[in-house]
Design goal:
Layout lengths: L1 E3 L14 H4 L2 H12 L15 E2 L15 E2 L2 E3 L35 H32 L4 E3 L2 E3 L1 H29 L2 H18 L6 H29 L5 H30 L1 H22 L11 H5 L3 H29 L11 H29 L2 H17 L3 H8 L3 E3 L3 E3 L3 H33 L2 H29 L2 H27 L3 H4 L1
Antiparallel strand pairs: 1-4, 2-3, 5-6, 7-8
Length: about 525
């Protein structure tokens, strides 16, 4: 086995990290321990010469502190093909070390492969947002009513809730098996299967004739969205080097945001003009084009991760540290992102602004547009200047902006911002400040998101389970995305509309403060700037 231990990028110490992938953890510790104290390697551990520059008195390799610089290839077995303890090379390796364990490439894949993955992200995002936009139409067309199943009465409200919950449950259930399959087998093949299934699923939506069929097809859509999202992001992270990873992920996210903007603005109009058929024909065609692009252009994924990578990644110190932030931040984003349009469109008597539907869509588009444009640049900055600082700054700014949203009426009144615009109609003074706040939320999140994703990708690449790493990232988000709206709905009715944004912002602020405290305590005071 050959490991290229040459450092590959700035902003994240990478030297010697690949050794921890190919060797078992005990061999990694044997290797790094003498280095951190200025010692020398055991002569029987490696055959070929390893050139190290500098020593380090900081924390150990397992703690991901600074490491010595390695500038050579090392053969991780003795001449007889056995490890230093006499066991066959590879037999005593970690379960997550596969046939090709190191997923950090020495050189980046060509641009064409990234563009195919960006197209895949666009197609998946366009399909998802189109269903969200047309969901009220399906409710009106299907007109769900209470029914009895096995003696149990199912209310119409529960059935309507299942239109979304069925999708979410299937999406969540698919994360672990799909992520495992992506790491164990060829991610390209898994992506082809999910995109091919997506083309079939979206072609079936015009055939829906009952609530049951809609819920079942939405569940299949959940599997497609999970698979396409996990595999496309995993391949983007795997094909990029550590020095370009956040930049590439940011561009992939920008493609998804572009799809959200185009889909949300066009889906309703296309349905009004042509009905369901042409709308879903466009989505299915996009899926087919993406499928062909993946088949023709994308290289096969040669990594094979044996065992169950989730078990090791679940106790990875960096991932646990990121989870301390992300679990709380999920509440913040779900609450704030959902309630900005609710605040804009809800009747004044209920604490909202009572603006027209098109004006509501502008508040949503403002956040997506600034987030999309921002991620075209912020990922590159994160690659250059480090990831943790961007997570901390972006998450903290998001919380502060959210807390400021209830000030929209006071700011608008002070500026005399009430006006009437073509198409949007009469707008209260608070509306324009709300649009600005929404745009600022997108700017703040554009700093956080590519850096956060790259941190998870870095750990997955190092430990040999990049799809599983993204899978953990998705699972951590689920509790906040489910419970958050329930909290916000109660606050809106029982307390006030403003309290929703105060609580949402508080989740983000406590998240970044927890993140900072754990960084300093477990990884050193300089971790915020060295991660």
């Amino acid at each position: 086995m050959v490991v290229d231990t040459k450092a590959k990028g700035a902003g994240h110490s990478q030297s010697c990290r690949a050794l921890g992938i190919v060797l078992s953890r005990q061999y990694a510790e044997q290797l790094v321990s003498p280095l951190t104290t200025g010692g020398t390697l055991a002569p029987d551990l490696f055959e070929s010469k390893v050139v190290f520059s500098g020593t380090n008195s900081g924390e150990s390799y397992a703690g991901r502190g600074s490491e010595p610089n390695c500038e050579h290839q090392t053969t991780a077995s003795k001449g007889d093909g056995r490890m230093s303890d006499g066991s066959p090379a590879g037999d005593d390796m970690s379960d997550t070390a596969g046939d090709t364990a190191a997923t950090d490439p020495a050189t980046e894949a060509d641009n064409t492969q990234f563009w195919v993955l960006y197209l895949t992200r666009f197609a998946e995002g366009f399909g998802f947002i189109t269903l969200v936009t047309l969901l009220p139409v399906y409710i009106n067309v299907l007109d769900p009513s209470a029914t009895t199943i096995f003696g149990l009465t199912i209310s119409a409200g529960f059935i309507i809730g299942m239109y979304t919950t069925g999708f979410t449950l299937a999406q969540t259930a698919a994360i672990i098996p799909l992520a495992w399959a992506g790491d164990r087998f060829d991610k390209r093949t898994v992506l082809l299967v999910t995109i091919g299934l997506g083309a079939i699923v979206y072609a079936m939506f015009p055939l829906v004739d009952s609530s049951l069929s809609f819920i079942l097809i939405r569940a299949l859509q959940g599997v497609v969205v999970s698979g396409a999202g996990l595999m496309s992001l995993s391949l983007v992270g795997q094909f990029a080097t550590v020095g370009t990873r956040a930049d590439r992920i940011g561009k992939a996210n920008a493609a998804s945001f572009l799809a959200s903007i185009v889909g949300s603005l066009s889906a309703g109009g296309l349905y009004d003009q042509f009905g369901f058929g042409p709308v879903f024909t466009i989505i299915a065609a996009l899926m087919v084009v993406a499928w062909v692009g993946i088949l023709v252009v994308l290289d096969r994924d040669e990594t094979r991760i044996k065992g169950f990578p989730f078990s090791d990644l679940a106790v990875n110190r960096r991932i646990l540290t990121m989870t301390s932030f992300r679990a709380q931040y999920a509440f913040a984003v779900t609450i704030v992102r959902t309630w900005v349009p609710i605040y804009a469109g809800t009747a004044i008597a209920s604490g909202g602004l009572g603006v027209a539907a098109l004006a509501v869509s502008v508040t949503v588009t403002a956040e997506k547009a600034t987030n999309m444009v921002g991620q075209l640049f912020t990922g590159r900055l994160s690659d250059t200047h480090g990831r943790a600082m961007f997570v901390f700054a972006g998450g903290g700014a998001y919380g502060l902006i959210a807390v400021g949203i209830p000030l929209s009426p006071a700011i608008g009144s002070a500026l005399g911002a009430d006006l009437t615009l073509p198409l949007l109609g009469e707008l209260p003074a608070a509306y324009l400040p709300l649009v600005v706040f929404s745009g600022l939320l997108g700017v703040a999140d554009s700093f956080r998101e590519p850096a956060s994703m790259a941190l998870f990708a870095d750990e997955g690449a190092d430990d040999g389970g990049i799809a599983s790493s993204f899978g953990i990232r998705e699972l951590v988000w689920r509790p906040g995305s489910v419970i958050g709206p329930l909290i916000a709905g109660w606050l809106m009715v029982e307390v006030s509309m403003a309290s929703v944004f105060y609580v949402g912002g508080a989740f983000a602020i406590t998240g970044v403060m927890t993140f900072l405290a754990i960084l300093a305590h477990d990884h050193g005071r300089d971790a915020l700037t060295t991660w």
